[in-house]
Specification:
The chain is α+β, with helices and mostly antiparallel strands. 30% of the residues lie in helices and 22% in strands. The chain is built from ten helices and 13 strands. A six-stranded mixed beta sheet has the order 4-3-5-10-9-8, sandwiched between helices. α4 crosses α5. It is elongated. The N terminus is likely disordered.
């Protein structure tokens, strides 16, 4: 599916952008309760299955992808890892198309590699009440919450304040952050606007990233507040990567076929029913240069099981795992 990033250029050469916040959350002991609150959002489906459909744009064309879900409603995670996550992308510029979000795509790949199941991505405007509502709901429902956007120096950067209000916390100018700001960016005046970026929710945890004065702020134990500029966000996530998940990526295999979805759907659905704890996704080609019509992904926690099911899928769709062999 398409995703967009709150990617404004960092002003003043500060080594930190004025736009955006990205929020990740440390795993909580109450993982089972969190997972129990998750509600699968689907587009209907029949015979106990749920089909998630989304639009993928590219080269002026739009393609529709279908994820076949097991009859247990397990969704695209099909046997989800222990830790779940949600991402909240904040910014009017995302919703109006001025800025393309790439953070959610990076986050999805980053979390997959860490063995964390990203279950939801939401995009909302720079509105205090909407930020607060979404953050508290996600914090209650997932092990990790990531927000992107709104921690810069301008009037529309509201994320710190919205999160503080949501969790009944005071805001304060953090002198340690101000000191780091002066040390790393000595050529810039610490004015009122820049102090907004050092005004944090009380009692928050602060994680440092080498070369950056802005901390990775953690609120309510599982909400990580990160800048929205991609290069900064990626550095901060990598610096804190050990806090997220097991560090062991889920197994994934891809089968390529020249069959069309309408022809392979019945056989693929039967395999999905047989293996409800493995995620099987079907995706039509998006480029004319592709030498296949559909790629089928198989994902799960047990690598041997995934290999066996991938072989089963390849037989059912007359496919191969090496696209060049078609």
């Amino acid at each position: 599916s398409t995703s967009r990033t709150n990617a404004r250029v960092a002003p003043d050469g500060q080594g930190f952008s004025d736009s955006g916040t990205m929020n990740a959350v440390a795993a909580l002991p109450a993982v089972l309760a969190a997972m129990a609150r998750f509600e699968v959002v689907d587009a209907g489906g029949q015979d106990g299955h749920k089909d998630d459909r989304f639009r993928v744009g590219g080269g002026g064309r739009m393609s529709e992808a279908v994820v076949v879900k097991g009859g247990d409603g397990s969704g695209g995670s099909g046997g989800a890892p222990e830790d779940t996550a949600a991402a909240l992308i904040i910014g009017d510029e995302i919703l109006t198309g001025k800025t393309q979000d790439t953070n959610s795509n990076y986050l999805a790949k980053f979390l997959f590699a860490r063995g964390v199941d990203l279950r939801r991505v939401e995009v909302i405007p720079d509105v205090m009440e909407e930020i607060g509502e979404a953050v508290t709901r996600m914090s209650n429902g997932f092990d990790y919450v990531f927000t992107s956007g709104g921690i810069g120096p301008t009037h529309d950067d509201l994320t710190y304040e919205a999160i503080a209000r949501a969790f009944n916390l005071e805001l304060h100018v953090d002198e340690e952050v101000v000191s780091e700001m002066r040390r790393i960016s000595p050529g810039h005046e610490v004015n009122e606007a820049r102090l907004r970026m050092a005004t944090l929710p009380s009692g928050c945890e602060k994680l440092s990233t080498e070369g950056l004065w802005v901390p990775l702020v953690v609120v309510n134990r599982n909400v990580y507040v990160l800048p929205g500029v991609p290069v900064i966000l990626e550095r901060m996530l990598q610096a804190a990567s050990d806090r997220f998940g097991s560090g062991v990526a889920r197994a994934r295999r891809i089968v390529y076929t020249r069959m069309h979805e309408g022809d392979l759907a019945k056989g693929l659905t039967a395999i999905a029913e047989e293996h409800p704890h493995v995620a099987i996704g079907s995706y039509p080609r998006t480029q004319r240069s592709d030498n296949f019509n559909v790629r089928v992904t198989i994902e799960g926690d047990d690598e041997r099981q995934v290999d066996a099911i991938a072989a089963q899928v390849a037989d059912a769709v007359r496919g191969v795992q090496d696209a060049s062999a078609l």
